[in-house]
Structures are given as C-alpha cells and as structure tokens.
Amino acid sequence: MNADAWAWSDQHGEACRVLQTETLWGETLCRVWLPSRGAIAYVRLVEAALHAGSPPFAPLRSLMSSPALFPFALEPVSPRLLAHNPRLEIYRQGLDEDMVALR
User: Is 28 part of a structural domain of the chain?
Assistant: First the structure.
C-alpha cells in the first residue's frame, strides 16, 4: 500500500485513503482517513500495543501513550473505530474507562 492511495479496509468495512504506512516487526501498519466518519484511524497499532504488553488488555487511554507504540504518536481514538476489528474486544469498566482486549 502506498501513501495517498485509496484502499478497501476490511477492518472498517469501507474505502479509506492511506495517509502513511510503516513496517514494524514484519507487519505493515497504516494510518488511514475514513471519509464517512471524517476520522483518522490507526489500523493495527492498538492491536500491536496489546500484543507487546502483558496482560492482553488495557485502558484505551493508556494505550494511546504506550511506549510500545514508539515512534508513533497517536491522537485519541474513538472506541467505535476499534469495534470493527474482529481481533479486539471493547468494553467499559466503571463509568468512563474504555477497555481494549485481544479476543
């Protein structure tokens, strides 16, 4: 995938524009723009951070600043954008803490 190309995202179920690609530990990671949501999503970066840590779940807020994501700096991600990933489970803990776990 090349930057500035349009591609189909099975994870989000829609066409997206690739803004940036990086290869990290043999996995290609993409930063994409989703036109129907007007949002930028980081495909597989959250999943990679969960694989790098132990246990395989974490608060979404702390994943955005996880050292496992270096050299990427992530903007806050809506849990709804991650809910389309079949390998992740999103659930709420307490009143305001969104948790992300590997399935």
Answer: yes
